[in-house]
Design goal:
The chain is an alpha+beta fold. The protein has 16 helices and eight strands.
Length: 387
């Protein structure tokens, strides 16, 4: 069934709708847009049933389709519907799908062995020797997206031959495992903020770092924050947009969307953060964005990353990512509140399991746990009080 989410603008507002598309043997025969998914499904099933009663209306014979033809059609029909950043990520990987062993394969012959052959070809590709290249998981995800689209919209009988083993074999260089305690300690962060304050000419970097640490905001959410979304009287800020960075030009652009529906949320501003924001407000001179470079323009991610990482390296800290601040906020928030649902809401996570990955289990350790466990064992036969 081809029921696709669409967003249309009506009276300046972005509204969700559902487009029902009827495909039979790879041919789209009809399509119609509806306000809700149920109505779209009912119309789709009824219309397709009527069409199937008249087989003369379409070609029932399955034609031979090569992967190159499938890929061209994917680029024409599905690729334009993707987000800009996803498109840019896929564009850099398209050469791995247009060359090599895949293009001349018939879709009916594409199986797990063909994927293995393609992966071996990838490992012999000149880019496999690049210093920063450790896997081809991005290329495999792109191929998976193409094949899943083909199964959903062209040939329902096609089986996607990508397995878990393929995903494991994509990692062809040893990568050290991520530390289980993936969060920075308060003393490390205090020293790091101090370093940014004393060694960066523009105060925007230590202020941005402080904002991210004290709110748990993603770097794109913080950089996309406008003064119109900050209420200094109520001590709150609203996450309703974000900054994205063009993968090719590295230039920032503002989006009036968030990562997910749960990401739209209020941020409670502490007194310490309020003092920083009030000082920034006086210096803003009518600028819309909270955090800007020396020219008053939106910050570039590579400039943020360079400043943050230089500080980490100077202090011999192992972190090399802006996202460590979000992990650190989550863990410290859970230590302070012991309320996982509250931490989930502040981070804007839809699934609590994701919050548990951010807020490390160590945050739930307490002396009370040790004392109660000791009493339960009662190794020394002490009398247990019944009071």
């Amino acid at each position: 069934m081809a029921i696709i989410k669409r967003y249309i603008k009506k009276n300046g507002q972005r509204k969700l709708c559902y487009q029902a598309q009827i495909y039979i043997r790879g041919v789209r025969l009809q399509s119609k847009t509806f306000k809700n998914k149920t109505t779209a499904c009912v119309w789709h099933d009824k219309q397709k049933e009527n069409l199937l009663k008249n087989p003369s209306d379409y070609n029932q014979e399955k034609q031979t389709v090569f992967f190159s033809e499938c890929f061209e059609r994917y680029l024409k029909e599905a690729f334009p519907l993707l987000g800009k950043s996803t498109q840019q990520g896929y564009e850099t990987r398209s050469r791995y799908l247009t060359k090599g062993p895949l293009p001349n394969l018939r879709m009916e012959d594409l199986n797990a062995k063909c994927i293995y052959n393609w992966m071996n070809w990838l490992k012999k590709h000149p880019t496999a020797k690049n210093k920063g290249r450790k896997n081809f998981i991005g290329e495999l995800k792109f191929l998976s997206a193409v094949l899943n689209w083909y199964r959903n919209f062209v040939d329902e009988d096609f089986n996607v031959p990508i397995t878990k083993k393929h995903r494991q074999l994509c990692h062809y260089k040893p990568v050290p495992p991520k530390r289980p305690d993936y969060f920075a300690r308060p003393e490390e962060l205090r020293a790091w903020i101090k370093w940014l304050k004393e060694n960066r000419n523009n105060p925007v970097y230590w202020r941005l770092a402080s904002f991210m640490l004290l709110t748990g905001a993603r770097v794109g959410e913080a950089c996309g924050m406008l003064w119109s979304a900050v209420d200094l009287e109520q001590k709150t800020a609203r996450v309703i947009r974000r900054i994205r960075w063009d993968q090719q030009t590295k230039r920032p652009y503002l989006e009036d969307t968030t990562k997910s529906s749960a990401s739209v949320r209020p941020l409670i501003l502490s007194d310490e953060l309020m003092a920083i924001l009030k000082e920034m407000k006086k210096e803003s001179n009518g600028k819309e964005l909270l955090f800007t470079d020396s020219k008053g323009e939106a910050l570039r991610y590579n400039a943020i990353q360079a400043s943050f990482n230089t500080g980490f390296q100077a202090l011999n800290l192992p972190w090399r990512s802006t996202h460590i601040l979000r992990h650190s906020y989550a863990t410290m928030a859970l230590i302070a509140t012991r309320d996982l649902s509250s931490v989930q809401a502040s981070l804007g996570h839809t699934d609590m399991k994701v919050t548990q990955q951010y807020a490390k289990v160590i945050a739930l350790l307490s002396r009370d746990t040790a004392e109660k466990t000791t009493k339960a064992f009662n190794l020394f036969n002490k009398e247990i009080s019944t009071d």
